[in-house]
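User: Before I run my own analysis I want an independent prediction to cross-check against. Here's the chain; please return only the structure tokens and, at the end, one sentence I can use as a sanity check.
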Amino acid sequence: MGLNTSIHPAKKTLAAVTWAVNKVYITSTYVINKMGGVVAVAGAILAAVTAFTSVTVGKAAD
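Assistant: Structure tokens:
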């Protein structure tokens, strides 16, 4: 008889749900933490494109 056969099915289900919730929490926390860096890079790219286009449009208007 294996060890898992002596555990009640409800306890197995609860353990599986707890494990899944924990993994979702860890993953979402990681994504939220990394999102700050992604937003910073996107902002820097947008600022560079804006600066480039404003200089280019200004020269074309002259």
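Sanity check: The mean pLDDT is 84.
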